[in-house]
Design a protein that fits this description.
Layout (H helix, E strand, L loop, with lengths): L1 H17 L23 E2 L6 E2 L7 E5 H6 L5 H5 L5 E6 L2 E7 L15 E5 L2 E2 L13 E8 L13 E7 L8 E9 L3 E13 L3 E12 L3 E3 L4 E3 L2 E12 L5 E12 L7 E3 L17 H4 L10 H7 L19 E2 L6 E16 L3 E19 L9 E19 L5 E21 L22 E24 L2 E22 L11 H7 L3 E6 L4 E12 L2 E12 L21 E14 L4 E22 L5 E24 L2 E14 L4 E3 L6 E3 L11 E13 L3 E12 L32 E12 L4 E8 L7 E6 L6 E5 L4 E9 L1
Parallel strand pairs: 6-9, 13-18
Antiparallel strand pairs: 1-2, 3-8, 4-5, 6-7, 8-9, 10-11, 10-40, 11-12, 12-15, 13-14, 15-16, 16-19, 17-39, 19-20, 20-21, 21-22, 22-23, 23-24, 24-25, 24-26, 26-27, 27-28, 28-29, 29-30, 30-31, 31-34, 32-33, 34-35, 35-36, 36-37, 37-40, 38-39
Length: about 800
């Protein structure tokens, strides 16, 4: 680790020392707020500054001011503005970007998502970093499709880029935005840029504070819940000691101690006299594939059987929209992150050289009531501590000549120390599964789970492009990646246990934390090839071929089966094919972009059924082949000055294509993955927006925005039968039907006003205009199991005041 850090700093310092005067390094322009998503937005999707309409792929980009006008308060809100993109999240956060149906539905942060996030060109190693506070942003770019050439690691689905604002070398600038809304939601974002030496050095300090917003109420604790408690601070020092040198040092700190959403308990049980079946006492609606308030919770049915210390409250006592719940007021974050990025660029005329060195401590703590009831049946307290270092070197050609190229090298190193405590002391039966580990009675049913995970990656890549004619161009990238990962010192024990611990090798390996295994990337080559034809200034046709990988890894949950629990799952690989066009006309008052794509996945990573030590079924990462195909459209029109209408639509058919089988819960038969739709991959998704801006002389600027986004059913399993033929399409278990996630459409609106000649503005907004309620995700605690559902926020209002000079 120390060698890697030293080599990174040496590379950066050496680069600074050898710089000689030349033309200044150009920076991409920020998005013009008045242009929205037009072709004039300059992006760096291919690590070169170019207008969005000239990039041969489907992508979306939003400038910082545009994000404010769209009421985007965190990174995951951006996904709502883009069709073909979903966010998987649980009550503990960890938003996972799922682009065109590509995503691993995983709640353990030791496995990175297949759509990676880059903050100022630095790779974020875990989906948990995706819930970072979003403030003082210059631009966000969302790239669709594998980015294995230019970005490489874990971009089989795409990439999300966040570019923070830079200091202004020539003038003093400051801005602040204060917002207050429903449920006492408060936020303040502010930043100031100060030139230290005109045109040579400048410093920008920016920060954010967020609080309030809790809209739920815990019935058993009689407590309102869900308030945010976020603080973030970023300092950026920009130095240009010569016309060809640009050095940027970014230091950032943030903490998040927000109260997290509460699960709404869902009924799945019934007494034998009420029709409960099997030893689990499943109720009739659940056996038919539905959770129901007419059924009992797990503690509710036990209470009726004589375990009166457990809550017998009915799910029907909760509000249907999840605003009141049977869950304890318990779910909470305790996150702290400290990071440094040093970005050094030098322009030597024909070529440019860039070095990016980054280090981050990310402490991800949270606690969760997964049983969604008043009892301690599935509580957990977790702390994952990441230490992350990376070094990126890139040498690229400059100029507009027919041939362009770039060479790059990346090194990354991560260390994770994971500790988790599971508490189920109110369960009269679950503790019995762990008597061999010393848990003599239910009061001792507290398990400490822990492991260490280390990974190291090296990669090198080559990019090349050639313009055969002024309108016809071929460019591509090829990357080789070597990655190793090690899970070690893994296991669990029961620290309150007073009973004898079994001498069996399985138990001893767990209580002594000796589980270990290693993983090495086998599919090392990734890349992209783009063929583009630009017959006119405002028209582009393109076709692309891409190969991406998403690294394999280890299950990071409760290793109840010992060594077999941590057998590495394989990396997924994809061959992606895409063709499309981008065009504008009517003096750039009309635009239409379209693309068709086909993905062929080998060993796609998926959540496959596994059985816990208590007999409950939960999802664990595994590999299943899959195929995705779809069509995307984006359009806008400006029928009159000031009025802009825009929209996007994605049709997606994402299914498993594998005869691999798994055991059903219903009858013990086998079911095949063949033809089963992937989770969080709705067939249809869409966005629409109407925006009107008026500049009234002698009065000021008025702005109106109304937008809507929708998704069809996000998970709609089909019923399986016992001993099903593997060739039959889309079988699944009856009880998976209870995890059905229906579609939704959400609307938002905003009105703003800036008086003429004044540096301030005011705005009012409403989110979820129609007060739509839907289940974000259904989850279990993996123990009894208990079922709970996570609901979206209700309609909220707010006002905002901004100032800038």
């Amino acid at each position: 680790m120390k060698v890697a850090h030293i080599s990174g700093w040496i590379a950066s310092v050496s680069l600074l020392a050898i710089c000689t005067p030349a033309l200044a390094q150009s920076e991409p322009a920020s998005a013009n707020p008045d242009q929205g998503e037009s072709d004039e937005i300059v992006v760096t999707a291919q690590r070169r500054a170019e207008t969005i309409q000239n990039v041969p792929m489907m992508l979306s980009a939003f400038g910082g001011e545009e994000l404010k006008k769209r009421n985007v308060v965190n990174l995951e809100d951006v996904a709502d503005k883009i069709s073909g993109v979903q966010i998987f999240r649980t009550v503990t956060g960890q938003p996972t970007w799922i682009i065109r149906g590509v995503g691993l539905v995983e709640t353990n942060p030791n496995n990175p998502p297949p759509a990676s996030i880059y903050l100022d060109e630095v790779y974020e190693v875990t989906n948990a970093q995706g819930q970072m506070p979003l403030f003082d942003v210059e631009r966000v770019e969302v790239l669709k499709g594998p980015q294995g050439g230019t970005y490489g690691r874990n971009t089989s689905g795409g990439a999300v880029k966040i570019i923070s604002r830079k200091p202004d070398l020539s003038s003093l600038r400051a801005d602040a935005t204060l917002s207050y809304g429903s449920y006492n939601r408060f936020s303040l974002d502010a930043g100031v840029s100060v030139p230290l030496a005109t045109d040579v050095a400048a410093l920008r300090i920016a920060g954010t504070v967020k609080s309030g917003g809790g809209w739920q109420h815990s019935i058993p604790d009689n407590r309102d819940w869900g308030d945010a408690d976020v603080f973030g601070l970023r300092g950026t020092l920009l130095v240009a000691p010569a016309s060809n040198v640009n050095a940027k040092l970014i230091l950032d700190y943030s903490r998040d101690r927000s109260e997290l959403p509460l699960l709404r308990a869902a009924g799945a049980r019934a007494l034998p006299s009420e029709g409960g079946t099997s030893s689990a006492l499943w109720c009739a609606p659940f056996n038919a594939g539905a959770l129901s308030d007419a059924c009992r919770t797990y503690p509710g049915v036990l209470n009726a059987l004589g375990f009166t210390f457990l809550s017998g409250a009915s799910p029907a006592t909760q509000a249907a929209d999840g605003s009141t719940t049977l869950s304890n007021a318990y779910n909470k974050l305790n996150v702290e992150t400290l990071g440094m990025t040093f970005d050094l660029k030098a322009d030597f005329g024909p070529v440019s050289l860039e070095s990016i060195t980054a280090y981050r401590d990310f402490d991800y703590g949270r606690r969760m009531d997964a049983d969604a009831t008043a009892n301690e049946l599935g509580h957990s307290i977790t702390r994952d501590r990441f230490k992350i270092f990376s070094q990126d070197l890139r040498l690229q050609s400059n100029g507009e000549g027919p041939f362009t190229w770039a060479l790059g090298f990346n090194y990354g190193e991560e260390r994770l120390d994971s500790k988790r405590t599971f508490l189920f002391r109110d369960d009269p039966f679950t503790g019995a599964a762990f008597t061999a580990y010393g848990a003599a009675n239910r009061s001792e049913a507290v398990a400490d789970v822990g492991y260490l995970q280390n990974s190291r990656t090296y990669s090198g890549y080559l990019e090349a492009g050639y313009a055969f004619t002024p309108t016809f161009k071929l460019n591509g990238a090829l990357r080789y990646t070597d990655l190793t990962k090690r899970y070690h010192d893994g296991g669990f024990n029961f620290p309150l246990g007073t009973g004898a611990v079994s001498a069996s090798p399985l138990v001893q390996s767990l209580v002594n934390y000796t589980l270990s295994d290693s993983y090495h990337l086998r599919n090392n080559w990734t890349g992209n090839l783009y063929l583009s034809w630009k017959p006119g200034e405002n028209t582009l046709f393109y076709a692309s071929l891409g190969r991406g990988i998403k690294e394999g890894g280890f299950f990071g949950g409760f290793p109840s089966q010992g060594q077999s629990s941590i057998v590495p799952f394989r990396e997924e690989t994809v061959w992606a094919y895409e063709a499309g066009f981008k065009l504008q006309g009517w003096n750039r008052r009309f635009g239409l972009n379209a693309a068709a794509f086909y993905y062929d996945y080998a060993d796609a990573q998926a959540s496959v059924p596994a059985v816990s030590a208590t007999g409950a079924v939960f999802g664990r990462p595994g590999n299943v082949d899959a195929r995705h195909k779809g069509v995307e459209l984006e359009t806008f029109v400006v029928p009159v000055n000031g009025l802009r209408l825009s929209g996007s639509m994605t049709y997606l058919d994402a299914k498993y294509h594998d005869t691999q089988q798994y055991a059903t819960l219903d009858s013990g038969g086998l079911a095949s993955y063949m033809g089963l739709r992937r989770e969080f991959a709705p067939k249809w998704s869409w966005t629409v927006e109407a925006r009107y801006d008026a500049d009234i002389a002698g009065f000021g600027k008025l702005g109106f925005i109304v937008d809507a986004n929708g998704r069809s059913n996000r998970f709609m399993p089909q019923l399986a039968s016992a001993n099903v033929n593997p060739s039959l399409p889309a079988p699944t278990t009856m009880r998976e039907m209870s995890r059905t996630l229906v579609g939704y459409t959400l609307m938002n609106a905003r009105v703003s006003f800036q008086p003429e000649g004044q540096p301030f503005s005011i705005a009012a907004y409403v989110r979820n205009l129609t007060d739509k309620h839907y289940v974000v995700v259904t989850q279990t605690d993996g123990i009894a199991p208990n079922y709970g559902q996570f609901y979206n926020e209700p309609r909220t209002f707010g006002v905002e005041v901004g100032i800038h000079f």
